[in-house]
TrEMBL record:
It comes from Roseimaritima multifibrata. This is Glutamyl-tRNA reductase. Residues 178-307 form the Quinate/shikimate 5-dehydrogenase/glutamyl-tRNA reductase domain. Residues 6-157 form the Glutamyl-tRNA reductase N-terminal domain. The active site is at residue 50. The keyword Cell membrane does not apply. One of its GO terms (molecular function) is glutamyl-tRNA reductase activity. Substrate binds at residues 49-52, 110, 115-117, 121. Belongs to the glutamyl-tRNA reductase family. The lineage of its organism: Bacteria, Pseudomonadati, Planctomycetota, Planctomycetia, Pirellulales. The record marks 100 as: Important for activity. Residues 322-424 form the Tetrapyrrole biosynthesis glutamyl-tRNA reductase dimerisation domain. The gene is hemA. Homodimer. It catalyses: (S)-4-amino-5-oxopentanoate + tRNA(Glu) + NADP(+) = L-glutamyl-tRNA(Glu) + NADPH + H(+).
Length: 428
């Protein structure tokens, strides 16, 4: 039994290359079906995210595609030339492939280590493979074990509880200091770029309902509001929206101060000293520093939040060795179990074969002896026990060696040798 992985990720492949290989859900479904038709004896799970495209395949030794065939399949699916593609992909097999899968699921291989989204993406990829019938015993075991490992890392380390991006710290750590809930708060998000989009996701996840997205390009604001949540509002309404806001998050790419102290004075007077939290995530800053000195206004700049990010990153790094230890331990256990399971059919067939031969010889011997003398019950029992001991003694050395070879990853090739020597077939 062999597990393989081929693909690319953000660590070794540019985004342009990853985009060429990426799959939509519908495309992934088609690919899984095509793989089954091309390699009927093999299993596959296809993981495609913005940061990685990876094929995980499983099969009995010799029944699945090799490295070249997997690259050819991927090239065909994405209409890319095979020549040169193989050199741009990462290929792993055996324990290395398992360790990689466990590392991915535990979010230790993510662009932002500890981000929670990847485990749900791994789960969705596995569920799609199950629905299509392309998963099998080996991939079932591998991906279920990966889920177990991710839960262990989450439970036994604090990696996932340490936020390291500015938006995640802003929404997850600063806002809760001021508001028990965001469900009833009026929120104005200024800017709809990458930072604004990420912040919007965190706000929606945190339970915000009343979010107004303001951007100079109304089209961009409408796009992320439709995809994630909130309502796009015209840029000229900004001052009016700020007057009614409980929380303002600003993420524009403006080169000059967006809201000066003089401009905000009018807004502030219309607010009647209601509490206002401003998270200025822009560089350069969108809000004049002096605004934070006004009554009932709390202004945080990106520098204030960055220090929290760096502190959390240091704490995550402290947890890294512990998380890696969990992954190494679980990988060794999985591979050992896999090797022992691979020996099961051979041991069973070898014992069945020996039992059949024993019964045939006992029947022949008893028939001859019954013609010569009358055997008592005890004598019959003694003969049967002698045959059992003989069979067990003959089988013990090869089976003991086979178990030792399994513990070493079948490096000695005894599994194949026993199949050949005793004419055993897993399919029988």
């Amino acid at each position: 039994m062999k597990l393989q992985m081929i693909g690319c990720n953000h660590r070794q492949a540019a985004v342009e290359f990853r985009e060429q290989l990426s799959f939509t859900t519908a495309q992934a479904q088609t690919a899984l079906n095509d793989f089954r038709n091309r390699f009927p004896a093999a299993e596959i799970v296809l993981l495609s995210t913005c940061n990685r495209v990876e094929l995980y395949t499983g099969a009995a030794d010799g029944d699945g595609p090799d490295q070249r065939a997997m690259a050819d399949f991927l090239a065909t699916q994405r209409n890319l030339p095979t020549d040169g593609l193989l050199e741009q992909l990462v290929y792993l097999d055996g324990q290395a492939a398992i360790e990689h899968l466990f590392t991915v699921a535990a979010s230790l291989d993510s662009m932002v280590v500890g981000e929670a989204q990847i485990i749900s993406q791994v789960k969705q990829a596995y569920e799609l493979a199950c629905e299509s019938g392309s998963a099998g015993p080996l991939t079932h075991a591998a991906f279920q074990a990966a889920s177990h490992v991710a839960k262990r890392v989450d439970r036994e380390t604090s990696i996932h509880r340490r936020r390291v991006s500015v938006p995640s710290v802003a929404v997850g750590e600063v806002i809760p200091e001021f508001f028990d809930t965001l469900a009833d708060k009026c929120i104005v998000l200024i800017g709809a770029g990458e930072m604004g989009e990420e912040t919007l996701k965190y706000l929606v996840t945190a339970g915000a309902k009343d979010i107004h997205v303001v951007n100079r390009s109304r089209e961009r604001a409408e796009k992320i509001a439709k995809e994630i949540g909130g309502t796009a509002r015209p840029w000229p309404e900004l001052d009016l929206l700020l007057t009614h806001a409980d929380l303002i998050v600003s993420t524009t790419g403006a080169t000059d101060t967006l809201i000066t102290l003089e401009r905000f004075q009018t807004i502030h007077e219309a607010r009647y000293d209601r509490l206002l939290l401003i998270l200025d995530l822009a560089v350069p800053r969108d809000f004049a520093h002096d605004i934070g000195e006004l009554a009932s206004v709390y202004l945080y700049s990106v520098d204030d939040l960055q220090s929290a990010c760096e502190r959390n990153q240091r704490e995550r790094q402290k947890q890294w060795p512990k998380a890696q230890g969990i992954i190494a331990e679980e990988s060794r256990k999985f591979i050992a179990d896999l090797h022992h399971r691979a020996t099961g059919p051979v041991i069973r067939q070898l014992r069945d074969q020996a039992e059949q031969l024993k019964q045939e010889e006992l029947k022949r011997l008893m028939g001859r002896l019954s013609q010569q003398t009358e055997l008592g019950t005890q004598a019959t029992k003694d003969i049967e026990q002698a045959f059992d001991r003989l069979v067990n003694k003959l089988l013990h050395p090869p089976l003991a060696s086979l178990k030792d070879d399994a513990a070493a990853g079948h490096s000695g090739g005894l599994l194949v040798a026993l199949r050949e020597l005793f004419k055993l077939n897993d399919g029988e």
